[in-house]
Structure prediction request, 124 residues.
Amino acid sequence: QNMAANMSKQLLSRLKKVAREWPVDSSRQGRDLGEYLRTVYQKKFESLVEKDIDQALRAVQSLEKLNSNYYHHLYPRVREYGFTGDMAVNNPWLLSNKTMNDMNKSSQSILQRLTRRTRKFKMD
Prediction:
């Protein structure tokens, strides 16, 4: 039992380390993965460690692999951009909570709202 307690402390420590290294985007409050790892998932993980230590170990290992870009290096991309190109990098306001709320409230189509917002953003 002492060994299990030691293992659970190590797993919780590893989870906290991964959570600290994961960036938090304050503009995506309530939708940010870093924030989720630090709050909700950490509580769920503590109960998982008590129930099934093997599953908790696999969960921490998976998060560590994601955090270290293990899969990015294992499966290199042909190109370093996706369908939207680097739109989200050059226009961080696109994924902010304010923009998401504005889009949900508006009666315009998504394309109309995005083009209007892009023109407004470029003029500033």
User: Anything to note?
Assistant: Residues 79 and 85 are 10 Å apart (CA to CA).
